[in-house]
Amino acid sequence: MNLTLRIWRQAGPDDKGRMVTYPVEDVSPDMSFLEMLDVLNERLTLAGEEPVAFDHDCREGICGACGMVINGNAHGPERGTTACQLHMRHFKDGETIDIEPWRAKAFPVLKDLMVSRQAFDRIIAAGGYITAPTGSAPEAHSTPVAKANADVAFESAACIGCGACVAACPNGSGMLFTAAKVTQLGVLPQGQPERYTRVIGMVDAHDEAGFGGCTNAGECTAVCPKGIPLTTIGRLNRDYLSATAKRGGTPGGS
User: Which stretches make up the 4Fe-4S ferredoxin-type domain (predicted)?
Assistant: First the structure.
């Protein structure tokens, strides 16, 4: 395959970026998208040019590092697929492919296709810990968990924190990520002692990071590579309303 790549190049957070065009030849349809970028970078390096910076780690679709916007779609055209698991056979010979970083106020561009997702780390940190007795690990069956709750927890825990939900949301909201992290503990017995302080802390951290508000557009779930459903946000909203009622305030206030 012969392709034309239009890639966002930006030297640093304070520099002005631009789209730069690169031709790539002899691309195997069996390559992953990141392998194709590796080939481009090898050629740029040999030519004495600056390679394209992009995040990657496991390349198995489970770390969330490889996020980028491909032809206007977070992670590319295939649903339920991360950029590292997207193969070039999903594109046509001679096609022009636009590749950009996540676009969100809370995700500042570091270089080229790399953005800072430290805002997600701050949301996780705001969730705190769970109260659990110390000592040896308890027996696996010592705390009964309803099957329905276990299924919801596992579904939410599948979130890899890639940020595709933020990139796709017209408001730049990170609420699907926040809801997944709140829910995976909020439906389990081990997460109950801090359930309501957790949701307030994480939602406050979400807002402080500069993410937009959720208006249930649903774009987040359409691009989520792990299929986190929109109902997860509804569950977070219920917990948040309950939490604010318990502390005697109103949502968004003390």
Answer: 150-179
